[in-house]
Each structure stands twice: as C-alpha cells, then as structure tokens.
Design brief:
It contains twelve helices and five strands. The chain is an alpha+beta fold.
Length: 418
C-alpha cells in the first residue's frame, strides 16, 4: 500500500514522475548557467572545448578543407589546435581578435596538413561570435575575413590542393551562414532591448500620469475644502463654539492632505520594483468625505444602496476619487447648492452618481463636458476620472442636466477590469 501510494504521489505515476524530476533539474541547471557572467561562461566553454579536442574519439572529428596530404601529429599541430580552442575564452569580449587568432591557426593547420582535430570547429564558434557580439567595425571585420579567406585559398592552390572551384565557393557560403546566424541573434537581441526600453518609458509615463492624477485629486479637494472652511470661519468670531469646530475641521482636513501627500511623495522617492498594489494609496470612506464637505457648509446627501462587494483597491479608489472630485467641483462652482451622492452596489458593479443642483440650462462647472464623455473640458480632474474608470473597464459620463445642475456618473466593475 505504501509503494502504491507513493507511486501516485502528486497525481503522476512513478514512470512519469522521473522525467518530470529530470526536466526540473535541467531547468534549474539552465537557469544557473544563464545567470553566470558571460566572461566566466566563455572561459569554461573554452576549457571544455579544448579537452574535447584531445579526447578520443572526438579528437579526429572536425572541419577540413584543401585535402592536402595529412602528416603525423607534432608539437606544432598541438599548438595550432590550442590556437583554435583557447581564444574562445574571449569570444564575447573581443570577438574580432578571437576570429583572427582562430582563423589564422585554422589556415596554418590546414596548410601544414596536420591531423584533423575537433578544435577546428572553433572557426565556426568564432564566426558566430563575431556576428552575435561584434559592436565595433562590424563591416570591417567581415571584409578582412573575406580577404584572409582569398589569401588562404591562393596558398592552398599553390601547395597543390586538389579542391575545385565548387569547393572554394561552397566553403565560404557555409562560413557566411554561420556568421549570419550570429548576426540574426544580435539583431533579435537589439530589437528586444529596444522593446524593453520603450516598455519602460511607457510604464514611467503611465506612472507619472497616475501620480499626477492622485496629486491633483488630493491637493484640489483638500485645499478647496480648507479655503472654504477658513472663509466661513472668519464670520464665526462671535460664536466661539462654532469657530472652534470650524478650526478643528480645517486642522483635520490639513492633516489628511499631509498624510496623502506624504504617501505620494514616498512613492515618487521609492526605488526598486514594488508591486503595483504596494504603490496604490488606500482609499478613505465616502461617508467621511461627505461629512467633511458638509462641515465646510456644502449641503450634501448620501444614499447608499446594496451591499458593497469585495472589490479591488483600484476600483475602490476610483469610486472614492469620483465622489471626491465631484464634491470639490460642487464646492468650487456651486457653493451652497444641494448635492446628492448615490452609491449603488451590485455583486459585479459599483455605480457612483453625483448630482449638483443648479439653474435650469446652466452648469455648475466652468465649462460643460459632453454627455458621452469624449471631451471633458471641465479640467484635468474630470478627464483624469474618465481615464481612471475606463482603464478599469468601466464607463464614465459627466455633463450638464437639461433640468439644471451637473451630473457625474461612473460604473466601475468590482474586479477592477472588464
């Protein structure tokens, strides 16, 4: 029973768990290798490549060109083999120099008729490295390599090589294909780097825009409330109780403004890649917002229907900012007029509606945006609200009412996205 239970552990039979474990170890090995510095990997690769060049039976497998008579091994052939292997240690740092040493060693090795060696494949590695990693003299290095190959072919012909014209044309095509593969890899790498830079710029721009909206909402609302409350307080000198209450309201409003500004400044100064949720300010309670506005002398009625669902912080913040901006505009442009805030909760949506009374045919703002929300000319606040809500997958409208006054309406998905 114990062995049968362990065989089915993890929902996989024993014969399937072994390849899965091997694949997991292989992925760990690949990640470990990719995390190592390029210079270290090149040195290790060059060392392994050198060992394989002298280890049978791979020692006799390699590239050969010219078909000159093969002589016995010697110290010179060993040195030339090392010349085709060891320079790979600097293939990414100095790819041009690597190709020069490896190519020269390969040409001399072939011209002297040294025994075939696995190290001759280092020529392909060096060519690929030039295509993939050469940053300076990208055109000069291939031209120099082409001239060196022509000289190599002339020397082989003078030494009596039986290779024909087809051989002399086919071999450089293979070498050019290897170089082209490296160039393709470099091009893909550069394109990916450009894409990442553009994505980073877009992310920075979006973050700046988001922070600008937050600063606008915080500063505009709280400062407007403080100005209105301070203006009303100067007429309450004859009523000390009411004056103290007004001053306490101004004090609490200022403290809330400082707390939110301190949070936003902390975000702007922060370094590192924090999660988006960690950079989102926690919204307050709409009821507190309404009470604060009432304390400033604006008549506001709050109606909340339904149970608030478990919504994301972004959706809660969007609803809070919609009410906050609407009340700020009401205080600025329709001071003393009745304002209605209605919150309607459903399992999937939260609807926010703010209606401010006004004269018939008039508006409560300095300029009336169109009802479809395509052009909100009432300032950055309404435009920012529309962008915020639509980013979450909701709908936003704002405009003057035919019967008078101004209406702001937002329909926000509970999950923060459609």
């Amino acid at each position: 029973m114990r062995s049968a239970s362990s065989a089915q552990e993890g929902g996989l039979p024993a014969h399937a768990r072994l390849p899965a474990a091997a694949n997991a170890r292989l992925r760990l090995l690949v990640r470990w290798w990719e995390a190592r510095p390029a210079t270290v990997k090149d040195r290790e690769f060059a060392l392994v490549f050198t060992v394989l060049s002298f280890a049978p039976p791979l020692a006799l497998i390699g590239a050969r060109f010219g078909d000159l008579p093969v002589h016995g091994g010697s110290a010179v052939s060993v040195l030339l083999t090392l010349g085709q292997c060891l320079p790979i240690a600097v293939r990414t740092r100095w790819p041009g120099a690597c190709l020069a040493v490896v190519g020269t060693s390969f040409a001399v090795h072939q011209c002297l008729g040294c025994p075939p060696t696995f190290g001759s494949l280092g020529l392909y590695v060096a060519l690929y490295s030039v295509g993939a990693h050469q940053t300076r003299f990208r055109r000069t290095v291939p031209l120099a390599a082409t001239g060196a190959y022509v000289l190599f072919g002339v020397v082989l012909h003078m030494l009596g090589s039986p290779a024909g014209v087809t051989d002399y044309l086919l071999f450089p095509l293979v070498l050019a294909a290897v170089w082209g593969l490296g160039a393709l890899v470099r091009w893909e790498r550069e394109r990916e780097a450009v894409r990442r830079r553009l994505a980073a710029r877009v992310a920075v721009a979006e973050e700046r825009d988001r922070m600008a909206r937050e600063l606008h909402d915080v500063v505009t609302h709280h400062v407007t409330a403080m100005v209105v409350q301070a203006g009303a307080a100067q007429y309450l000198t004859a009523s000390p109780d009411r004056l103290n209450s007004a001053l306490e309201t101004i004090n609490s409003t200022g403290r809330r403004a400082l707390a939110e500004l301190r949070f936003l400044l902390g975000v702007l100064e922060a370094t590192g890649d924090a999660e988006p949720q960690g950079r989102t300010p926690m919204p307050g309670r709409v009821a507190d917002l309404v009470e604060q506005t009432r304390a400033g002398g604006q008549p506001v009625e709050l109606i909340e229907e339904g149970e608030q669902p478990a919504i994301t912080t972004g959706a809660r913040l969007a609803a809070y900012r919609t009410v906050q901006e609407s009340l700020t505009n009401a205080v600025k442009h329709a001071a003393g007029r009745q304002t209605l805030v209605r919150l309607t909760h459903t399992p999937h949506w939260t609807e926010v509606e703010v209606i401010t009374a006004g004269t018939k045919g008039g508006t409560c703002g300095s300029a009336a945006p169109r009802e479809d929300g395509s052009h909100l000319s009432g300032g950055r606040g309404l435009t920012g609200l529309r962008e915020r809500v639509e980013t979450l997958g909701g709908a936003f409208t704002a405009g003057a009412r035919p019967e008078g006054g101004f209406r702001v309406h937002a329909r926000i998905p509970a999950g923060g996205g459609a």
